[in-house]
Amino acid sequence: MRAPSRSHAFALWGTATLCLAVFLLSWSFGGASAYPWQLLSPSEDLELLHRILIDIRLPRVVAACLIGGALAAAGVLTQGLFRNPLASPSVVGISSGGVLGAILAFYFGFNLINLWVLPLFALVGCMLTTTVLLRFARDPHGFPIEDLLLIGFALNGILSALTSFVLSLALNDFDKAPAMMNWMLGTLSGKTWEHCLVASGPLILGVFFAQKLAYRFNVLSLGNDVAQTLGLDLKRLRTQAVLLVSILVGTSVSMSGMMPFIGLIVPHLTRMMVGPDHRQLLGLSVINGMTLLMLADLVARILIPPQEVQVGVLISLIGSPFFLWMLYQRRRQAAL
Fold first, then answer.
1. pLDDT tens digit string along 70-119?
2. Distance between the two ends of the chain, CA-based, in angstroms?
3. Which range marks the domain in which residue 173 is found?
4. Cα 174 to Cα 38: distance, rounded to the nearest angstrom
5. Phi, psi of 48 (to 5 degrees)
6. What is the C-alpha radius of gyration for the chain, rounded to an integer number of angstroms?
7. Could you give phi then psi for residue 18, rounded to 5 degrees?
8. Could you tell me the CA-to-CA distances from 325 to 71, 265, 268, 309 in Å, in that order?
9. CA 188 to CA 133: how far, in whole Å?
């Protein structure tokens, strides 16, 4: 037992150190030449530096931490719920449901009422999608990968078509359409401390309660029959997992738009580090999710300055080949 404990401690320190290093890099570099250590020395431009570093750049980095960690946790929950490493909120359509809900809020102008309205609409969209997915994918012997992916792709297609339809209705509105398109591509631009404050409660509580369910997912991984024999209430666990995934994904989507594949890439790479134990997997996945999104956002800001690449586009460019590689690996293992 000592070796796994030391291995987990090493992985924890390593990922935490990397996360802190990327945090400092992401805070230090951007479109403007301003660095955190300059705040410690007297300067005529101190007010401008404070504006750039504390009011603009730091909230963006904190938002990346919150969203990246939440989406990684949602990915762990989704994979545990369906007992399949290829499941993730973006692959099986959960994120698309949140996007549709948020787009409807944009279209009808509800997002202007209060900062809480957008997360609420995205939450409802995620919850409805997850409920439909569970309803169709339920199987007494588990969730076959073929059924799960086919249903997820079908839901993604339907929800994306509905989202495109709403967008097409708003094309002539030059106030709504650009904002909706920019948000759909996935961006952290313009995030303020107010956005972080609104999102921090649901996201932190969601991750906290997800950790409370970690041991139950270890039991569920043994199979439905074994889990029920051991006294696990499957219906209650599924309800709790659906609610948590919806909160995590809905809040994240409402804050940044589409950030696909984080919930697929991060849990898979973290599982290679510490194994399948959800008690260890969840916490490390949260840290790695923070690191990945902060790094992607940093690249998006410095790739072609002074313009910014949408960070959601960069994540998709990484995630899509990664998903194909995972499918290839599963097919190769099945053939052996």
1. 999 999 999 988 888 888 888 778 888 999 998 999 899 888 887 788 88
2. 31
3. 2-335
4. 40
5. -65, -40
6. 20
7. -60, -40
8. 21, 11, 12, 25
9. 29
Q: Which two tokens stand for residue 179?
A: 């904002």
Distance of CA 24 to the CA centre of its chain: 21
C-alpha distances (whole Å) from 311 to each of 21, 30, 187, 259 are 19, 14, 6, 8
- Best CA proximity match to 323, nearest among 256, 270, 272, 263: 263
47: CATH = 1.10.3470.10
Cis check: omega of the bond before 306, within 30 degrees of 0? yes
Task: List pLDDT tens digits, range 291-328.
Answer: 999 999 999 988 887 788 889 989 988 888 888 888 78
Give Dmax over CA atoms of the chain in angstroms: 70
Q: Do residues 207 and 286 lie in contact, with contact meaning Cβ atoms separated by under 8 Å? A: yes
Number of domains in the chain: 1
Copy the structure tokens of residue 38.
């300059």
The DSSP secondary-structure symbol of 57 reads I
pTM of the model: 0.89
Tracing tokens 């999608």 back to the chain, one arrives at 129
Pick from 18, 79, 66, 12: which is nearest to 207 by CA? Answer: 66
**Amino acid identity, position 40:** L
